[in-house]
Specification:
The complex is a heterodimer of chains A (113) and B (115). Chain A has 113 residues and is an all-beta fold. Helix content of chain A is 0%, strand content 54%. Chain A is globular. Helices cover 0% and strands 50% of the residues of chain B. Chain B has strands at residues 4-7, 10-13, 19-25, 31-38, 42-51, 54-57, 65-66, 76-78, 87-94, 105-106, 110-114. Classes of the chains: A mainly beta (113), B mainly beta (115). The A-B interface holds A 4, 6, 9, 32-33, 35, 43-45, 47, 50, 52, 91, 93, 95-97, 99-106 and B 31, 33, 35, 40-45, 48, 50, 58-59, 88, 90, 92, 97, 100-101, 103-104, 106, 108-109.
């Protein structure tokens, strides 16, 4: 079984500031993939960033970066220079080799002008 | 345009009336999956399919059926809907079974209300 836990239901950040979302997970697989998805008010699911478990280097996509701590089973997302368009719900997800994608409960991020 | 489509986008129905939510992808993806999204629970997998005629249960399969007769289509069937199946449903697909790191492409979602 695999589980994903997001302990922050809501977060608020001032425009241009930085916010970090936490995610912890559990899996018995040695090789797996971690994702952060963004769901804006339109409800569309948008991939933000992806991390392969066997890669030690943290993934980065423009203003989005992750802190992947494999031993601690932690996968946090940092949003730098927050913009109003970043307002959304963010989901952490885990996909192991059995092709099952498990999601956390989500964190609602509100960017204040 | 590469996309996953779902129909209908919104549906209000009554308990016990059979319904089907269609899902279609035009990317020739082998893997397809259905999720339901509920507040505080995130997205939970209902069923997935790794290829035509190959389906398997996810975390919450009770009350749902699926079929995969064609590669592009993966309908979700509720034989006898109940109010606890009121939810937001997403269909997703991804290329090539065996590449678990590949991104899943999501449909726009179907908001289902069962009265």
């Amino acid at each position: 079984a695999q589980t994903v836990t997001q302990s922050q239901p809501e977060m608020s950040v001032q425009e241009a500031e930085t916010v970090t979302l936490s995610c912890t997970y559990d899996t018995s697989e040695s090789n797996y993939y971690l994702f952060w998805y963004k769901q804006p008010p339109s409800r569309q699911m948008i991939l933000v960033i992806r991390q392969e478990a066997y890669k030690q280097q943290n993934a980065t996509e423009n203003r989005f970066s992750v802190n992947f701590q494999k031993a601690a089973k932690s996968f946090s997302l940092k949003i730098s220079d927050s913009q109003l368009g970043d307002t959304a719900m963010y989901f952490c997800a885990l996909r192991s080799n059995d092709y099952k994608l498990s999601f956390g409960a989500g964190t609602t991020v509100t960017v204040r002008a | 345009e590469a996309q996953v489509t779902q129909n209908p986008r919104y549906l209000i129905t009554v308990t016990g009336k059979k319904l089907t939510v269609t899902c279609s992808q035009n990317m020739n993806h082998e893997y397809m999956s259905w999720y339901r999204q509920d507040p505080g629970l995130g997205l939970r997998q209902i069923y997935y399919s790794m290829n035509v005629e190959v389906t398997d249960k996810g975390d919450v399969p009770e009350g749902y059926k699926v079929s995969r007769k064609e590669k592009r289509n993966f309908p979700l069937i509720l034989e006898s809907p109940s109010p606890n199946q009121t939810s937001l449903y997403f269909c997703a697909s991804s290329p090539e079974v065996g590449l678990a790191g590949r991104e899943q492409y999501f449909g726009p979602g179907t908001r289902l209300t069962v009265l």
